[in-house]
Structures are given as C-alpha cells and as structure tokens.
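[Meeting: bench + compute handoff]

Bench side (C.D.) handed over the final construct sequence. Compute side (W.E.) agreed to return the predicted structure before the next meeting so the bench team could plan truncations. Sequence as handed over:
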Amino acid sequence: MNIYYAEYDLDIKIGNNDMIAGICIEDPVSFRNFIDSIYAGLNGNESRLYITENDKEIKLDKNIELIVNSFSIDINNKRILAKLYQDMKDIADQEFYEDVSTLNTAIVNFIDKINEKIEYPIDYKLNLDIQQLFKNYEVKIDSTNVGLPEQLLDYIKLCHKILNIRLFFLAHSEAYFSEKELIDFFDTLKYEDVKVILIENRFESKICNENWWIIDKDNCLITV
C-alpha cells in the first residue's frame, strides 16, 4: 500500500507485514492542512492525499477512517447501523423469507383489527420494511467495554468487519494513551487485516518499531 501526500511529495510505502506507521507534521498549519486533506477525501471531494494498492487508486471515502478525537467515536454511528441493517435484511431475505412473510401477515392483520375499531379510513403499506423494523426496535451494536482503549479497539475492529475499512488514521494517540496501552492495543490488532497510521505534531519515540516520516517546522522530511 502506498500513501502519497502531494503537499510535500511525501511517499510512504507500507509493506504487507507492516501494521502501523507514523506521520509527524510539526508546523500547526501544515498539520491542519493534512487533516483537511483526509477529510476532503472522506467526503468524496478532491484531496491532495492519494492511496494506491497494486497500482490501483483506493477511494478514500470507501476504504479509510480518520479518528481525530478518540472520545468522540460512536460504535453505533449512521454508517455502521445502515450497513448492519442491510446485512440483517440480506440474511432475513435469504434465510428467513417465510418468517418475514408470516410477520408481515401478522402485522397487516393487526392493523386491520385496529382499522375496524376507528371511525375514519386509513391507508398503509402492505409490505414490511424490515430495515425500518430494526430501526424502530433500536437494534444496535452491543458494546460493554467502558475503557477508552477497549472502545477504540472495538470501533476499529467493527469498522473493518462491517464497513471493510482497512486503513485508519489515528491522530494524537499519544495524548490519550500510555505507551503500554498503545503496545497492548496494537498487539491485539495484529491479528486483524488492518493498517494504522499514527498522526502527531511532534515525535516522541517509536512504539512498536514502526517507521516514521517527520516533516519538521522547516518543511524538511526526516525518516526514522
């Protein structure tokens, strides 16, 4: 996987066996512009950040996730729930068609009984919207982890499994987690087919012997 940032002609190659890498941009404005470029790509807009794999460009809005504030992650955000409901619908259609049909008939009969008791005519759909049913019953991902490292780990694993996200940009991780927490975090993630790019505005030290690309305040590129 190659990550190219046109602003500084930054070309990062991540091998198949590399799980994490780091990008440090010391200048605040340059750091902000880099984050803006990721956001632009996530929103389907033109971006100065390009990612390729096997000489094919990867769409940012389909394949990456940016986590700027670990406290703001929502394991039941709209994207995850929409995909969850679609997956559940596919299973219902393929494996439980008769159950869905029986449920739909029961609901229609129930509405008919109510219709007989009211004094004005009503109209309604005859076909059950199974995804709307999941939404009405507030079906969601059950997460019992209360610690921030565990929540972040669950979120990354879920985004990978449900949304097929394979590359995560994680900003300011060293501000939220200790070195031991990060080591344990990446040790757990090594069995997942995901890659994590750490984004910092200052370089402290390596965590798991990962490679770092540093753009200092003089816009000079340093690799460590």
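W.E. noted at the follow-up: The chain has two domains: 2-75+148-223, 79-136. C.D. will use this when planning the next construct.
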